[in-house]
Amino acid sequence: MSWTCLTLQTDRDHAELWSDALSAQGALAVTLSSQATGAEEVPVFGEPGCPEMPLWPHCQIEVLLPLDWDASSWLKQVSTSLDQPVPPHRSEIVADQDWVRLTQSQFDPIPAAPGLWIVPTWHEPPDPSALNLRLDPGQAFGTGSHPTTRLCLEWLTAHPPRMQRVLDYGCGSGILTIAAGLLGTTQPIGVDIDPVAVQTACDNATLNGVSASFYEPDSFPDFPPFDGVIANILTNPLVVLAPLLLNQLKAGGWLTLSGILSSQVERIQNAYAPDCFLSIAGEREGWVCLSGVKQVY
Fold this sequence. Notes:
The protein is an alpha/beta fold. It has two domains: 102 residues, 2-Layer Sandwich (Alpha-Beta Plaits); 186 residues, Rossmann fold (3-Layer(aba) Sandwich). The protein contains nine helices and 14 strands. It is globular. Its main location: cytoplasm. Belongs to the methyltransferase superfamily. PrmA family.
C-alpha cells in the first residue's frame, strides 16, 4: 500500500495552526519537526513541571494522505479555510516497504562503547563475543547513535553497576536501562513521560532477556532510594527535575546526567549542588556527560 506525503515549510507562528487544520481536514498523520539539522537544531521538549517551550523558528510539517486524494486541491482547501496562502511544499509517494527499508538502512549496528554493540533487530551482531544489546527503537528516542546516548553508555561500561539498583529517568527506547541490566544491575527501572516509549522499552527489555520495569511518572511506585540514577534528557528539564532525581538517589549513590551542551555545564552543576557535586565525565560533539556522588551528611 502507498500514500502521498506532503512536506510543508512554515514558521513557528503558523505551524500549530496548520497542523491542527490539516488534521481536522482528514490527514492520516501530521508530524511537526524542525527544518534545522545538526548544530543548528534546537530541541523542543515536554516534561512535567516545565513551562511550555516555543516551537522551532522554522518548522517542517509532514502530512500523510490517501494515494487517491488530489493532494494539491486538498491543500488549497485547507489554505482557504485558514485564509492563509499555501506554504512552500513538496509531494512524494511513500510505499510501505520503501519506508521500512529506508528507516532500517539508517540504523546499522553501532559500537556504542568498548565491548558493547547496539544491534537493531534486523541485523546480526558483528561481534558475537561482545555484549550485544538488541534494539528496535520504534517511535522512541534512543538508538545509541546520538552523542548523548553514547556518552551514557561509555560511562556505564566504564563503571558497571553490578548488583546495584539503578533508575533511568527519561528512558526512551530503554537503551540505558537495558544496558545497565546487561552490565549487572539488579532489576533496573526506567521512567518516561511517553507511553509509547514505555511500551517500546518493555518490548526491548524482553528482547534482551533483561528483567526491567518501566513506568510513566504518574504511575511510578514509591521505591526506596536507588544506588544510581542516570538521566539523558535536556538541560531545562534536568534543572527542574533536580529535587526529584536527588530524592530518588541514596546518600553515597552516583548520579550521571547527559543531554547537556558544553555551554550549559555550570547551570546543571549549580542546580544539583551542594547535594551532589558534578564533574565532566565525557564530551562528544559539543555534548557533555556529568557525573557525581550524592553527599553523605
